[in-house]
Amino acid sequence: MQALNPRLIAAPFGRYSHGVAVPVSGRLVLTSGQLGVRPDGSLPEGALDQARQCFANCAAILAEAGLGPGHVLRVNGFVTERAHFPDYMAARDEFLAGVAVLPASTLVIVSGFTQPEFLVEVELTAMENT
Question: Name one GO molecular function term (predicted).
Answer without folding.
Answer: hydrolase activity
